[in-house]
Design goal:
Length: 103
């Protein structure tokens, strides 16, 4: 089973040049709620972009970069499968794709 621990991003969609981080392992389940425009879909887009290279919604890759900074878009997700710890880092401008296993 995959256990997501942390997701963080910067310069992704409407977020700025400082990392936004969400801990997903504080409890056994995580529920994300909020008003329209609060960022619920951004969390899902960041997760799918980091793992699959494309957002969940129909947004082209160029639109994922924050329009104010226009560079250094980065998403990181940390998770475990069994006893193995994984970290996936994906970015645009510069293009980055890293997979870390147990550090």
């Amino acid at each position: 089973m995959i256990l997501f621990e942390t997701i963080r991003w910067k310069n992704f969609l409407s977020t700025g040049n400082h990392f936004t981080e969400i801990k997903l392992d504080n409890e056994s389940t995580t529920l994300i709620v909020g008003t329209n425009g609060a960022g619920k879909s951004t969390v899902l887009d960041a997760l799918t972009f980091s793992l699959f290279g494309k957002p969940f919604r129909k947004i082209n890759k160029g639109q994922l970069i924050n329009s104010s900074n226009e560079k250094d878009c980065k998403v990181e997700v940390e998770f475990s499968i069994g006893d193995i710890e994984w970290k996936v880092v994906r970015g645009i401008k510069p293009n980055t794709f890293e997979i870390w296993k147990d550090g």
